Amino acid sequence: MSPTTDNPVNSTELARRLRDESERLGFQALGISGVDLSRDEAYLEKWLAAGYHGEMDYMSRHGRKRSRPDELVPGTIRVISVRMDYLPPQAEAPHRVLLDKQRGYVSRYALGRDYHKVMRSRLQKLADWLQNEVGTFGYRAFTDSAPVLEKALARNAGLGWIGKHSNLIHPQAGSWFFLGELYTDLALPVDDEFATDHCGSCTACMDICPTQAIVGPYQVDARRCISYLTIELRGSIPVEFRKAIGNRIYGCDDCQLICPWNKFAHPSDKADFEVRHGLDSAALVDLFAWDEATFQSKTAGSAIRRIGHDCWLRNIAVALGNAPTSDAVIGALESRRNHASAMVREHVDWALAQHGR
Predict the structure, then answer these.
(1) For residue 267, which of 29, 111, 177, 249 sits 20 to 30 Å off, Cα-Cα?
(2) Residue ranges of the 4Fe-4S ferredoxin-type domain (predicted)?
(3) What's the CATH number of domain 8-91+109-184, 3.40.190, 3.40.50, 3.40.109, 3.40.220?
(4) Residue 144 catalytic?
(5) Model's pTM, two decimal places?
């Protein structure tokens, strides 16, 4: 029989054991919230109306289901949010890679195994454990895989506050972590101790953004964001942002790297998030040499695969255009000058022009 708020002792004890089980499964924190996101719904609609989502049509495709959990999954009355730290402990120091324009910078979250796979399997195990405890109940698991306002839900569950860069920040863990959710019809007790906003007057994330994508506190224009430009965008990267992209070939971490709260971040202890194929500090010319088959092989089980080989080459071409001129750089770019993709050719031509070719 499912626990109810009519039996607070049982539901409270269940929530406690649920947290213990989540820790056993490798999550660093768990919180429980209700489904009221009316404040965030108004913010989302304003953000969409401003066009800040760019070509991410999926952000508006589902109407208000994103901000109304009980409409996305009928019967939902609680959301269980979990956190999993991902910072790879053995990775090359980010600032060293960013300063070496001959190497490609890959966002720290994408250096290891695809987090969707890691989180989803463990969320399912958590749901299985819960079902074993209470019997059959309604639920759905999500990991950045459906119209879910995961940061708002995690904030409401007490897992942190949403910073000016729009990432969730925990006062003892920074922001280098993934979030996942279980939508459920179980009347579990909610966590009512929300983390208050501790960004204060700090604007470090806004000031450091290479493309000035954080257009105001808590407002990110995705169309300017390097993560959007190198991951979500499928066409040509606007010329106005190419120099600012530097050597960032997949995502951007600058706003997190500068955040003072990340001095409290915890490196991950999971083998899943260990660096693969030397992508924490690989040479641009080496990565640009990957053919389609090599790209598919090297990105198997990685979040990087979703952008496809052409966008991979597009991104690296921009980085090579920003790299110091050398025979190796020119040779690499010349080797792709007649690539089958017009998009790749256009970015290669731009890069060669940066070197006076």
Answers:
(1) 249
(2) 190-219
(3) 3.40.109
(4) yes
(5) 0.95
